[in-house]
Amino acid sequence: STVFISGANGYIAQHIVKTFLSRGHRVVGSVRSAAKGQHLKKLFQSDFEYAVVPDIQSSGAFSSVFSRHPNISVVIHSAAPSYHQGPKLQESIIDPMVNGTNALLEAAWDHEPVRKFVLTSSYGTMGMSRMLQPKSAPNETITEESWTYTNKESATTKGPMVATMCGKVFSEQAAWEFLKRDMPQFELASINPAFVFGPQAFDSEVKLVMNGSVEMLHQFLKGKSSDRMPTLVPGSFYDVRDVAEAHYFAATSNKADSQRLLLANGQFSSQQIANILRDNFPQLRDVVPEGNPQKIPKVKCPYDDSHTRALFQHEPIGLEQSVVDTVAQIIAAKQA
Ligand code: NDP
């Protein structure tokens, strides 16, 4: 079958494309420029085609993709602005998320052969209420039924992180509302990963500054061991290769229909990342602060993903492996 994916050049999307190609599917991916498309064609060197969609928000943005590729039966919406410093949070983050999701849903609805629509959402739509409501239910266990508390006004007045989370909530909600209201011919599933770690799909994609979640690890390599430990928001993670596997599962199994898949594989802290790096890469001992290796904060796991694990029976990659693979690739790229 032919799979369409938006934002095909993104960090996670490249892994999704790779997974579908390796299993014999044709993939059409949208990018914002022909140069980005040509770059991907060189990387994938197989049954991959690109479509240039310069503005995902314009109505009819995706219609020519479907008329040119009538066999598309699976649609994956992965394009979204990532954490973005600067003014105009509504225009630069929230609008492209919500309008882009609606534009692609409408195009897929107009195209009868589409059977599945998989939305790359975020754990942030489930478990981040405390960012906007610091005193909200501190002991609430997050599940696939949870929704992050949002508020239209604070969405754009509390900085880019909150805007990003709110934009993900509004866009995922728009998709579920579309399903209920318009009763399209396709099934919908959402993939809700926590911070995504893991290597780039291709070694040549290692950059000086990488996408938000990988940059969280990358920053540990940019200082000196005498620096202060980088502060990370204590969070949960999931490996990018497993995130791609979850998209494949959602696209190919009816078990994921109408489901939100909560993808998280435990909590991490700065100290744990530092320990993993110093233990596995002796050459990083001058670079990564030691901190107090024994002092790993004990955090109660804030979520319960048993529903997702029962559906998507997949053993995810652990924190150490994920961090080691990410950083080994960066070190190798710098030496090359
Ligand atoms: P990347 O920044 O690597 O990729 C983002 C993709 O979206 C790129 O193709 C980018 O295109 C495209 N894009 C960004 N803004 C726009 C816009 N305004 N219009 C059209 N296309 C746009 O991010 P990730 O791979 O990390 O993220 C992919 C998806 O996963 C997103 O939906 C994100 O919200 C979600 N996600 C990511 C997590 C993470 O930790 N990384 C965690 C949870 C969810 P271009 O290259 O042209 O800018």
Automatic annotation (TrEMBL):
Domain of life, per lineage: Eukaryota
Listed name of the protein: Dihydroflavonol-4-reductase
This protein's UniProt keywords: Oxidoreductase
The UniProt record lists the keyword Zinc: no
Pfam families named in the record: Epimerase
Keyword Oxidoreductase: yes
Occurrences of domain NAD-dependent epimerase/dehydratase (ranges): 3-256
